[in-house]
């Protein structure tokens, strides 16, 4: 009897030990699973300081050409050193169009003349496009304004209203085609190369074509308390002249057209 009791006790000890080991393994497995699948959280200790507009600030406009340039270039530098989302709207409208003998070919109808004017307008870049740009996009392509200097400007002014300052510049034109003036502000303008490319898309050709940009202007509304841009607007005129235009099925001229381009940036949001 004594031996049997000892055997039973020994068996119970062994079973308890095995159960304990199994329990440890199960707990260990559960802990491993919890550790592996534990969600990763980002510390909220680091917060970003965002400048906010103070509506109670009364804006004061800079005085004198030097101070106006410094004021605008300061906001431009701030824009370049920060990441922004913004909306860009590019609108090009046809302000005049003359198609010479092409408009009076035999059997010409009003529909033909309208189609001809629309084709010339399309060649001249007439369109309207709104795009939203986000931080990380190629901002240098979307917002290509360069720092201004007195030698770039023919006229400038600054006014203040409420908590905003508005600065306006007329860009000086030195080259025959005006590309030197418009390229300071944007890459979205027609060159003779881009115009000829548009003409070829119609299966057409032209002789004596010229493209000239004029009346290039910049208007920027700036928040006085933060120096951030509220809106920026670029505008310019483009004149197209062709000695003749050949569509294969009809030939004639001279052809001329004028467009007005406005590029406006709004809804600036700092990231």
Q: How would you describe what is shown here?
A:
- By secondary structure, this protein is an alpha+beta fold.
- It has six helices and ten strands, in the order ααβαβαββααββββββ.
- The protein has a seven-stranded antiparallel sheet. Strands 5-8-9 form a three-stranded antiparallel sheet, covered by helices on one side.
- Strand 3 and strand 4 form a beta hairpin.
- It is elongated.
Task: Using brief descriptors, characterize the structure shown.
271 residues; alpha+beta; 7-stranded antiparallel β-sheet; 3-stranded antiparallel β-sheet; 6 helices; elongated; disordered N terminus
Task: Describe the secondary-structure layout.
Layout: H1 2-36, H2 65-80, E1 84-98, H3 110-123, E2 127-133, H4 139-142, E3 153-161, E4 164-171, H5 179-182, H6 192-201, E5 205-207, E6 210-223, E7 229-242, E8 244-246, E9 251-252, E10 255-270
Antiparallel strand pairs: 1-2, 1-10, 3-4, 4-6, 5-8, 6-7, 7-10, 8-9
What is the residue-averaged pLDDT? 85
Helix content: 25-40%
Neighbour order of strands in the largest sheet: 2-1-10-7-6-4-3
H-E string: HHEHEHEEHHEEEEEE
Rounded radius of gyration (Å): 35 Å
Spatial gap, N to C terminus: 85 Å
Helical segment tally?
6
Alpha-beta classification:
alpha+beta
Main β sheet profile: 7 strands, antiparallel
Low-confidence stretches: 1-50
- What's the count of strands? 10
Fraction in beta strands: 25-35%
What general outline do the C-alpha atoms trace? elongated
